[in-house]
């Protein structure tokens, strides 16, 4: 039986990896410590990016990649998606950008504009891209999640509740027609749902490799009123489930986009 906090947390990681979803009560009984001690352990492991919290327990992360690692993936696809998304933004609008490498690509496109836009974001990476842009840039602060370089938590949510937006652009680790947006952390999926409620138009930006994928167990449902934007490497088998559910899906190409 692990005695120290470090050994106990290592054992929790091993248990979560072999058993999947693990509850606070089960862990408390297994290690002979209080539920509050286990919650502190889980909070520490989550902050270190080693575990994902769930309601009442925890689950293993499936090797969540950092934003820096994801920046080099599907660069051409992300650029096409970002160009299409940038074209949807009208002068004078107030828009919201989620964290993620594709929304960072959108920020790079927006950085060239000077038409009285206001960009609000939860992303440290987006802030960096827009640091010298001739735009009004606002950040919804909170707790910085290192892997995603995004702000989450009650402070972020409280700031979000005081704003409305013309458009919100969301990222995702994966997306399925059945379960919706997939992320490694429930705080992230909850935040995406709150973002969507505050915007007139909602876009989910995902390159084709993420369609039909749910690498983690935290989800935010897709609304039929949202627009799912992907790239032209998407094949019919990956887009068909979204069409079957009546979702608006846009395929962005390097020069244009085709709605389907």
UniProtKB/TrEMBL annotation:
<dbReference type="Pfam" id="PF00455">
    <property type="entry name" value="DeoRC"/>
</dbReference>
<feature type="domain" description="HTH deoR-type">
    <location>
        <begin position="5"/>
        <end position="60"/>
    </location>
</feature>
<dbReference type="GO" id="GO:0003700">
    <property type="term" value="F:DNA-binding transcription factor activity"/>
</dbReference>
<keyword id="KW-0805">Transcription regulation</keyword>
<dbReference type="InterPro" id="IPR036388">
    <property type="entry name" value="WH-like_DNA-bd_sf"/>
</dbReference>
<dbReference type="InterPro" id="IPR037171">
    <property type="entry name" value="NagB/RpiA_transferase-like"/>
</dbReference>
<dbReference type="InterPro" id="IPR001034">
    <property type="entry name" value="DeoR_HTH"/>
</dbReference>
<protein>
    <submittedName>
        <fullName>DeoR/GlpR transcriptional regulator</fullName>
    </submittedName>
</protein>
<keyword id="KW-0804">Transcription</keyword>
<dbReference type="InterPro" id="IPR036390">
    <property type="entry name" value="WH_DNA-bd_sf"/>
</dbReference>
<dbReference type="InterPro" id="IPR050313">
    <property type="entry name" value="Carb_Metab_HTH_regulators"/>
</dbReference>
<dbReference type="InterPro" id="IPR014036">
    <property type="entry name" value="DeoR-like_C"/>
</dbReference>
<dbReference type="Pfam" id="PF08220">
    <property type="entry name" value="HTH_DeoR"/>
</dbReference>
